[in-house]
Structure formats: C-alpha cells, structure tokens
Specification:
By secondary structure, the protein is mostly helical. The protein has one domain. It contains seven helices and no strands. The protein is globular and about 45 Å long.
C-alpha cells in the first residue's frame, strides 16, 4: 500500500515536471499539443475509489493550469477523463475481470489493451480540453484536427514512456 502511494507520488511529480519543463517548451506547431501528464490519471490503480480518482484528477489538472495559465481548463478536462475512466476500463475489461493489485500499465495489461484504453481516454481529454478552449463551433474542423494530432502524439509519448519504464524496472 505504502509502496503504491510512493510510486504514484513520484509518477505525479515526474509527469508534471516533464510536462511543464520539457514538453511545454518544445514548439511542435499549431496543431500538436501533447499532454503527457494524462498518463498519471490513466495509470492510477484499478481499485482507486471514484471520489479519490476525481480529486486526484482535479489536483493534477489544476497543477498544469497553474503553469499553463489556463484557468481550470486542464482541471475540467482531467476530471472529465477521470469520470469516464471506469466506464472505459469496464468496456475493455478481460473476461475474468481485473486481478486485484494490478495497475493499468503495459507491463500488466499488455500493449493492445493499454493503447486501446489510453487512446479512448486521451481523445476524450483532448476533445474536452480543446473545444472548451475554443468554445465555438465555427472552428470545428481545425479543432478536431488539433484533437486528433495532439491525441496521436500524446498516445505515442505515453506508450513510449511505458516501454522505457517497463524495460528499466523489469530488466
């Protein structure tokens, strides 16, 4: 229990710092805005109580909002993603359900499961965030393209980081 809490605190700090110190300062064009911090919410243990999950998502999002000066948009998108997370996980659940004590990471669940679940959650997060940011339908297609490109890039970063961490800890 304590080991899981410490691991998640370290994961939170590393992902937030990576987001605000590295990714925020890389110019990838107008349509690509990756947000690797969503990986923290995705990889929280399956047994995380719903109210705690929503609270953690809010704290994660508001932490990003402080650095991006976005007035709660990341917090709202993160809480929305956390709200959808149990349903997405239930949809992709194995026939026998999830084993107690496992985490939604590549090492335990496999690549296909991780990429599928993460893709859905990342698209939901980015869709909510970018349409909240634009807040008009006149730019629907350009915003949709931005959602698609950013989600694709974010998914790639999240998957790559899972392989890097998995390889390091299991080898």
């Amino acid at each position: 229990m304590l080991n899981t809490v410490l691991r998640n605190i370290v994961r939170f700090i590393v992902l937030i710092l990576t987001q605000v110190l590295v990714i925020k300062n890389i110019e990838l064009g107008r349509f690509i805005n990756p947000f690797i911090y969503v990986l923290f919410i995705i990889t929280l243990p399956f047994e995380t109580p719903r109210s705690l999950l929503l609270l953690i998502a809010f704290v994660t999002g508001i932490s990003i909002d402080m650095f991006y000066d976005t007035m709660g948009m990341h917090a709202a998108a993160s809480v929305f993603m956390a709200f959808c997370r149990p349903r997405v996980f239930r949809f992709f659940a194995p026939r026998d359900g999830y084993e107690a004590g496992t985490e939604p990471i590549i090492r335990y669940m496999g690549s296909l499961w991780f990429v599928s679940c993460s893709a859905v959650l990342i698209v939901l997060h980015h869709f909510f965030l970018f349409y909240l940011e634009v807040f008009r339908w006149t730019e629907f297609f350009s915003t949709f393209f931005r959602v698609f490109m950013s989600a694709l890039f974010t998914l790639g970063l999240c998957t790559l980081s899972q392989y890097l961490v998995s390889r390091r800890t299991s080898g």
